[in-house]
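Quick question: who can interpret this fold?

. . .
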Amino acid sequence: MQGFEDTGVLLFCTDDWRITNVVATSDLEYGIFPSHSGPGRVDHSSASGANDTGIYVGQSHDVTVDHNLATGNVSGFEIENSSGVRLFGNDATGNTAGILSFTLPFLDVTENAGNRIDHNFVHDNDKANTCEPGDIVCAVPPGSGIAVVAADANTVDHNTVTGNDSFGILVANICNALQLPPAVCAVLDIEPNSDDARIVFDTALDNGENPAPGFPLPGGDLLWDGTGTGDCWATTCTARASRRRCRCASSDSTATVSLRAEQRLRSTERFGFGSGDSREYREPTRRRRCCFRADGDIERIDLGRHASPRRTERFAASKLGAAGGALQGPRFSGLSGYR
C-alpha cells in the first residue's frame, strides 16, 4: 500500500478483522488506520513514511497490535480514544515519536482507558517532525519515546526505551502537553489528566540527552508533569551512561528537578501553572519498590458529545477558538483547517 494521499489501509465500523503482512509506505497521513472498530488485530506489518502516524488505532476497542515495525513516520504507533488495546512486541524506530496513547476532545469516543503497551522496542525516534501544517501531531517533539496523555489506567510495562533525544516515557495532562491556555482547557469535553497509569518493569536508558528546541521540560528517561491520581512508577531501569550502571526507579517519593530560576519560570509558564501554584516538573527518584500518588484533579466542564468520524474536526477548532482565541504558537497556526 504505497503513495496514497491519505491512508494506506483504512477500516471503519468493522468487527472481527485482521490486517496482517501489510507493507504501507509513503502514505501521506496514515499507513494503517482502524477507526470506530471492534475486536481485531494488526500484526506482522510495517508502516513507514507517514506524515502523521504509521499504525493508528482510533476510537476502537479490543484491538491487538503486535509484531509490527513503524519507522520514518511522525508518530510510529498511536492509541487514540480507545479501550482494551494491547500493543506489544513491536519495533518503533526512526520516527519523531515512538508510541503515543492519548485522548483528544470533541470526538465520538471521549476516553482512553484500560490499554496495555508492553514488550516493545522503542529506540532512536529522533526524526524531524514533518507533519502537515496545522495538524495536532505537529505538537509532538522529535526525540519522543512513549507518551501517555489524558489516558486512564494505561499500563506501560516491559518495554525497552533507548536513545530518544527528548524523553523516554512521559505521563502528562493534555493541557500541559499541548501547552493550552486555561480558557481553552476549560471547555474540553474530556478529563485532561492521566490517572492510574502504571509504568513498571521497563528499561529506559540514554534518553533525553538532546531535547528538542522548545520542549518545556528537561530531557530525561522518565518524565511526569505532577498531575493525575493513582499514577504508579515502579522497578523501571534507568541510567544515563551505561546499562551496567542501571538502577531501578520507583516513585515512593519524588524529587523536584533543580533548574535555574529562569528555566523554572519558563517551564511553569508553559505548563499553565499559576503564580500561586507550587507544582513543578517532578521526576521519580531512583529507589526500589512502591508507587506514588499524584493529587490535584482538574475540573472538567462537559459540553456534551459531538460526533466526528475523523480524529479531529472543525467543530473542535471552533470551540477552542471561541474559548480562548487562536492557540498560541506556530504548531497550532492552521488549527481551523486540520482534519
Remarks:
- Residues 240-339 have pLDDT under 50 and may be disordered.
- The first strand starts at residue 7 and ends at 12.
- The longest helix spans residues 314-324.
- Residues 7-337 form one domain.
